[in-house]
């Protein structure tokens, strides 16, 4: 990495897409209204596992205003993926659009299109369904018990989504034999949901040539196109997927949803456009959650804190369908080979079906769960060995040359840099030595904790990724970047425009980004895996570099100079040693002296391997021992993301990830009744998220400690990292405050009070 | 279903919509008025994405029947700008501070922030937090939203701009 002066990269330029967001002009999928639009609604099962013995839609069809009703009798019978990544080795085909079987409470069994939402809703009640109930399983244990009812006919059996993932390196038994301390524990976590602000929505419209135009709020428009085409039996050029602004996704909007197929089919049947919009309640029931998990972890340490062996079994609860479970299980299990260096690991990862709503992709993708456990046990080991918890992590942090979960060598010493920097910035030593009591508030105890994480940019090697970009210079010197990457709100399009402007040598303002139309933009794998800046950014830089050469060649012709002697800065081409000899890109591209105007196009394709970003989070909590309420007061997140393209956008990712992570750790849990599979809190009042009154003081620090040669100027991902380290940091701080260890999330006030009572009894019994 | 004629002043302009009795103000604004800047995040008053100003007060437009707003003066996010070329200081500050990510909550939060600054031009951090307690943002962790409102308040106070 050569030192260079950046003109645009590394500056918090104004995001071009945000002006439309603050004026209200930006169009989200639900804002489109087409002439003759019909409204679609889905009839949802009120039983968790059953066979449909009769379904009668005659009354619904006869209801005034109803235009079509679909049941499993009327839709194509194509077994399809929930997570349709065509370049992935790990997908599970286990879904039909509609089937004569129900596998979770709330699953769609029929769909209606009508002239208004109200009429469609009323018609749902007129559909009569008879069910033959089947025995159901609502948690990991029940699903794995001998003789448990099987939820799927496909798959390896035993309610497993995929065959167990097994990873072994070194010699675990030898490692444990060398250990001075062996710790063993069980960990588990609930069912957080992403709760993006924009409920899932799509609009389908067919034209006379049997071509489908499909607006949908998705992170993966080309995957949606592929799956729709496959299931509907259409060539890819007969499906056009459009998405402009998106109201968040956080990973979960990269599934192929049942309502998307149904919307397209209803529109085809009615020959009219149909819109389907989830209610907030449906975003819980028919959306995607993080995987609830159970994990057993045994680790061995030497007296000096060195980790020498790790044995782990993790089970992810997939819910009724496989969705992203293959990916989550592989990524989550492999993540446990790393973070803290360990030569001897034996890891077993599984995903099991249950009759509950579907777990899918969600920011942190299987890693949130494993690192929660690993980082809590690291704290326990530090205490037992009498080593400061931050120092313990420094001694074990992965570093340059260690093998990453992907099998690649780690680049640089990013994790150590984050920990060391945070120790200073947070004032770790002084704080850990301070009084846990709070003056004037006798029931409150304070505590300080640390958590660490690393996360890959790109889904390699699980998915062989490819980033694409096309950059055009128009006849007037203005620049158009075409990208297939979705703009789910992160500012990725701005980062891509910055990269193009920097590499090309034009102003940021002269670059316009075109995105979100599968008929126009280059193919894209989707916006996920913290990879857009890393992957598509590299492709955009390649395209811009090629375009620059061609623009300079035109400039050379017009200036009668050698290309090698020209440079281009802010859209002005100048001869290096002749300051007066220059012309603007507009002049270069336009017609003159018999040279016609030109429009230049360059494209870049980039196939990455993998880079890793790192973080250490330092937190202060207050625990009220009378109410059990945990308050997260301060967070100092220290992240290494390589070269920062847009500092404010990067900070925003970190702060938003921390918000969600605090929620997962303390309050958020989508609860399913374990007696019948019903949703108990599918709404924003009963599903408790941290809001404006709950947010801590966050003092974000971003380091450029370990740039990766695979990203533009060394840039790496940042999207998923912040949600991972905050959980164990809070759990460790709570222990520091009240001396009670929690191995699960969310840690509720009730858990705190029960924990304090149990500890008091323990101390009494021990005569302390 | 029978429709009632609803006369409103929306963003300074007289508008008439024919609405069914059960329609919410949110649906009337979005579907009849074409004002899709105001968002539907939950439709049950929990998220604040549909906050608009009705006769000077912030209201969840999903919780108000359209016919209840008969004759009212309404401001939506589309009405924040004094002129098409000039952003409101809050809009400027949201852009500058990175207070909008996915942007779905932004219209409601901008409207809420305007109401807050109308009443209290230089709010404390606690007052800003309390003022936004009915608005869910899931992207930003609120940090940059607080920064933006603080900064817009200061700028407006210095310039004597009315929120």
UniProtKB/TrEMBL annotation, chain A:
Gene3D superfamilies: Aldehyde oxidase/xanthine dehydrogenase, a/b hammerhead (3.90.1170.50), Aldehyde oxidase/xanthine dehydrogenase, molybdopterin binding domain (3.30.365.10)
SMART domains hit by this protein: Ald_Xan_dh_C (SM01008)
SUPFAM superfamilies referenced in this protein's UniProt entry, alphabetically: CO dehydrogenase molybdoprotein N-domain-like, Molybdenum cofactor-binding domain
GO molecular function, one term: iron ion binding
Source organism, top-level taxon: Bacteria
Species in which this protein is naturally found: Paracoccus siganidrum
This protein's name: Xanthine dehydrogenase family protein molybdopterin-binding subunit
Domain Aldehyde oxidase/xanthine dehydrogenase a/b hammerhead per the UniProt entry, residue ranges: 23-135
Automatic annotation (TrEMBL), chain B:
Keyword Cytoplasm (UniProt): no
Statement: the UniProt record of this protein carries the keyword Ribosomal protein: no
GO molecular function: 2 iron, 2 sulfur cluster binding; metal ion binding; oxidoreductase activity
Domain spans labelled 2Fe-2S ferredoxin-type: 4-80
Record's keyword terms, sorted: 2Fe-2S, Iron, Iron-sulfur, Metal-binding, Oxidoreductase
InterPro entries in the record: 2Fe-2S-bd, 2Fe-2S-bd_dom_sf, 2Fe-2S_ferredoxin-like_sf, 2Fe-2S_ferredoxin-type, 2Fe2S_fd_BS, Beta-grasp_dom_sf, Diverse_Oxidoreductases
PANTHER family to which the protein is assigned, alphabetical: OXIDOREDUCTASE WITH IRON-SULFUR SUBUNIT
Name this polypeptide is given: (2Fe-2S)-binding protein
Domain of life assignment: Bacteria
